[in-house]
Amino acid sequence: MSNKNFGFGTQIRKSPYFDSTVKWGATGFSVYNHMYIPRDFGDPEQNFWNLIETAILCDVAVERQVEITGPDAFKFTQLLTPRDLSKLSVGQCKYVLITNADGGLLNDPILLRLGENHFWLSLSDSDILLWAQGVAVNSGLDVKITEPDVSPLQLQGPKSAEIMIKLFGEGIKDIKYYWFKELDLDGIPLVVSRTGWSSEFGYELFLRDGSKGNDLYEKIMAAGKEFGLKPGHTSSIRRIEGGMLSYHADADIQTNPFELGLDRLVYLDGQIDFIGKKALKKIKAEGVKRKQVGLKIKCEKLSGPNTTFWPLIVDNKVIGKVTSAVYSPRLKKNIALGIVDIIYSKIGSELDVSIDDKKFKCEVIEKPFFDPKKQITSISL
To answer: Is residue 111 in a domain?
Structure first.
């Protein structure tokens, strides 16, 4: 939606980078975690090529942080997630799930451990601050749950390492995949991690002073000029290629981790306690009735990502839905994530998809569609 048609108001927050993103060409925004996020810097296919060939800078301040501190912060954080956190070191990140008492997915954030009892949950799009504060009230644990003044930027793509070295020096190469450092850039306080929602090599820079947002954005763009850095937005094409979830699209409160093939993030065997453990044990024992799959849609090039769920059909019966779909210019085919009744989830299964009341053939194929072993993101420098 373009600026002239978008109703900016005080009840939805602007990011600390807002002015810079507009200056650098953002013409469309959407709303995520009650904030505006720039979603349009021109042709999305060009944005994709910029990401995979050089680098892009994305305003993802909408990835709000939930900060958990206090004497019982570790115990409380473990209560929120089925992933075993016993080996999570200070300075390390983990991709985690947050589940409710029924085993339903509430969010799939990145967890950062800043201290023995100091954690951030870097959120996808749902109100986990309120959930965590509600859980804390009834937990009997001594914790404080707040939203800190923290706003992430993503610098993603193969040239991002060279740009970061120019900004921070050679020491930046010591940050391993899914680890972070607390750094300072010309008086701007940051946490810098080797993470990002792109399936490409990259970094996230968590700004700890919102008043310095535009200053930080401009410094990065200036440092990246010689490397071909472009302003951009998170690429639907690349994240679907990588099989990355988008909460509210590919998962929601009615979806459990086993349907998504995320069994590795659910630790049921040990003594750790977490919300949803009993329900998830039951789901695992009984087996899931549906499953997320990768799909190839056999039709003309899709004009853009889907904006509604498309029914998946076998013998005139709806057996699932396409949750995220896009044309990949690299793979030269329409790829999609969907969720289907378990009996149709085998690789090679033939289904029909209904798009704007027209039926097309599609086939269940392996996912992720590109770089399945995540060799790009986890490269060591």
So the answer is: yes
